[in-house]
Structure formats: C-alpha cells, structure tokens
Amino acid sequence: MSEQASPALDLLVLADLHYVERAAHRCPVPSRHAWFGREGAERAVRRALRTFRPDAVVLLGDLLDNGHADGSEADLAALRDTFAAFGLPVLVVPGNHDGPAERLAAVFGPQPSLRELGGCQLVTIAATYDAADVTRHPDAALALIARAAADAPDRPLIVLQHNPIHPHIESTYPYNPTNADAIARCYADSRVALSLSGHYHPGIAPATVDGVCYVTAPALCEAPCRFLRVRLRGRAIEVTEHALAMPAEPPLWDCHCHTHYAYCRDDVTATAAIDRSRLMGLGGLALTEHAGQLYLDGEHFWGGRFFDDPDLIRRHRHTPMCRMDAYLAEALPLRSPFVRLGLEVDGDGRGGLCLLEEDRGHWDLLIGAVHWLPGLDPASATPAELHRTFLAESEALCRAGVDVLAHPFRYFRRSKVEAPRELYGPMARLLAETGVAGEINFHTHQPDPRFVAACLDAGVKIALATDSHALWEVGELAPHLDVLRQAGCADADIPSVLFTP
C-alpha cells in the first residue's frame, strides 16, 4: 500500500463520564464529578474542534454512574443529543455502569461489532458483567477479530472495549477481563494495531506489546478531567492526552464571567460558575455583570436608549426596573480570595461610563466594552469614520477609569467589518498609557495574536476572559494561552504579563 493511500484516522476518545442528572441516583464516590459528565463531554468536543475535526468520537463506557436507576435513560438521551449537535460519528462501548447494552444501542443507534472507518477496521466489544463487575471477552468476539484480520490484512485493526487488557492491574477490584491473557494472544496473532480501553480511572500510558499498542484512557469525570486524541497513519499511532482543567502554575484567573442576571445568558449562574472554576483548576474568577442590564430592562438596554437620554439610568435607579441592589445583595456574599466582583460597563457617548457614581465603590474591577458607536451606522460609515469613532470611544472608556478593555476589536467582527490592523499599534499604546489591561476573549470573537503581540511589546497586561454566558465556557482558558504563545510569549513569561483582579 502506498504512503498516500495509507489508512488515516483521527479519534477523540472519552472514557468514564459517570453522568448523573435525572437518574434517581446519587454518585457515592466524591471524586467522580458525576454532574459534570455531559458538560465535560461538550467541553472536550469543543476543545478538539478548535484544532481538528475528529473522524469519530469514541466513548469507552461508563457513560452513566448507574444505568439501572430510574431516569437513567433520560441521561443517556441527553448525552446522545449533546454529541449529535456536533454532527460527528459516535462509537459507543458499554461499560459496567451503563445498564443493558441493548438500551445503549437503542439510544445511540445500532453499534455494529465491526465497521470500517478511515481505511481501518474497528471492533467494539460489548462485554457482559456479573454482580461483582467481573467480565470476559466472549469467544465470538475473539473469533470476529481473527476473521477481520484474515479478511483484510492490509487494514489496521482497532479494538474498543471498556476493560483494560494490558497491563495486569493488581487490585481487589476486577479491572482486567478474566481471559485477558487469551485476549492478548488473539490481538497479537491478529496483528491488532491498537487496543483502546477505559474503566481504570487514572488511565495508563500507551505501551506496545507483541506489536499491539495498548492504551487506557483516563476518566473524564475526575479532575483534571482528561481525554485523548488518538491519531493513526497506517500502523503508526500517536496518542496525546489533554486536560480540561488548567495547569496549576501559574494560577489563572478568568477575569470576565457573567451570571444569571444577564439578559444574554444561556445557562450560567454565579454559584455554578464558581463551582466550575474550581473544578477547572483556576486561581480565581471575576463575576462581571453588565451594568446597563442591571440598571435597565431589556427594551431600554438593547435599544441603546441611554445614549440619547443621559438621565435614563438615574431616573430608573430606584424603580422596579433597576436590579442593581438585588445583584449586590446576591453577589457581595460571594466575594472571597477566589471570587472577585466587577461590572462590564459601556461608555455613555459623552466621555463617561454608564455607571452612577453612587455605585462605583462596590467593585474589584471594571471592564469597559464598546458594544455600540452612538450615532454611527457601521454599514454606511466610511472606514475612516468607523476607525476614528471606535478609537475615540475606546479611549473614553480607558480614561474613565476601567481596569480592562473587553474584547478589543470585536465590534468590527459583529458589524461584519474587517478589524483594522492599522489600529493595533495605537490601541496598544493607548492601553499602555492609561494602565488598562487588554483582554483575550473568545466569546463570539476570534482574538488576533498580532494585536496581543502589540500589547506585549507595549508592556500592556493581558486579562484572560471567557466572557462566559454558558457554563461550558467557564474556565476554558486553553485557547487563550495558545494565543499568548502565538503572540510570542514564552510559557515562563506568562505569569508576568497576566492581569489579576
């Protein structure tokens, strides 16, 4: 077979989600974050899709923590729907916690024991378990592997199962199948290229024995919430481990996160965001709600009426429309060394902030944001008008006392106008002059490493910000670190360039 025609496969591998939401079951193991299973899976897929598009998602069993509990089928269906939203093929192996294998197939669709993908043959083992979780590979499964190898010797053979085959794990709990030695002989005789397993939550690094690469994926449900990317080119195999949690050093702050008070939120809440930030290994979290949305109802805020009516916010400050006091009553008790409180504030079009003086003293940070350019239609304005007005509005925010400039240049992306690279230098110099941090923000935005590089050259601090409106976004700072590296910041220098509230 020529090199050009070599089988190629790129797999996203998740194991042991142990998900519980609707099932009438409480996970008895505290280290298993069973509530996180579906969200963790979504995060893993989204993380992967930033850099590659998997040929398939492989789920190596124990999708549920108790597949026999009432309501567990609804949890399975929720997982199925989460993966279906991405339009990727999903290969599912039943685990000992998943309940009947037939139900798993009914929810996720038929799971053929042998299929072809990317020029490779994949065999999935649907093992059965006794009451003590002891299992063995059926003789029929081993016969299928041998037959597949004989029928297509040029196609790499991959076997997916829940329990590890190699190495033998010394434990009173039955991790390996009882016929693991016979399985290993079958795999070697059949020239199996790759054996993928889950079940053993710490995971086991790849090891090649008798020509077979054995990989045991770590559990997604346990910190640091790891998953694998497995790439095959012919019989060459590359395994990369990823963690949803951020590295412990340096401690990273998510400097921009919304709450359930935001009109534009999805499912985020303040307390749930704090929980996610801790699970994701952050150094801290800043809750930064839209000031304008606290002062005004949706109609007045989204219409930008405060630009045309300077007294609008003050007139409504102590009316039922205003939720600032309610937010303060709920948010202030959450402040801690791990949690900072702030606001995302718009300019008022007259050089000030949409923030009353009486409300300025409560916050650890203010994030300035250009969401509108008052009096300017981006569709009809000339580039020179647009650039001049945008820079002036940004300067007004910076000189009005904000600590961070939110999502610089996102205004242009949302206006379907190309961001003006000629403003990168002037903007970086403005931030340096005013002591305002620049934000790396991926929420409906794609930061340009060239602007970040200009900020670094000017000595501007960088705020990492998810701008979370949905819980899956909270603490997802891996792409932010990648942008810093693309901008030329060495890992050793990252602590010195980061803004901390």
Topology of this structure?
Layout: E1 8-14, H1 37-49, E2 56-59, H2 72-84, E3 90-92, H3 101-108, E4 114-117, E5 120-124, E6 128-129, E7 135-136, H4 139-151, E8 157-160, H5 180-189, E9 192-197, E10 204-209, E11 212-216, E12 226-233, E13 236-243, E14 253-257, H6 270-279, E15 284-290, H7 291-295, H8 298-302, H9 305-308, H10 312-316, H11 324-331, E16 339-346, E17 365-369, H12 383-399, E18 404-405, H13 410-414, H14 424-434, E19 437-441, H15 449-458, E20 462-465, H16 478-486, H17 494-497
Parallel strand pairs: 1-2, 2-3, 5-8, 8-9, 9-11, 14-15, 15-16, 16-17, 17-18, 18-19, 19-20
Antiparallel strand pairs: 1-12, 4-5, 6-7, 10-11, 12-13
Helix pairs in contact: 1-2, 2-3, 12-14, 14-15, 15-16
Overview of this protein structure:
The termini are far apart. The longest helix has 17 residues, at about 385-400. The protein is an alpha/beta fold and about 500 residues long. The protein has 17 helices and 20 strands.
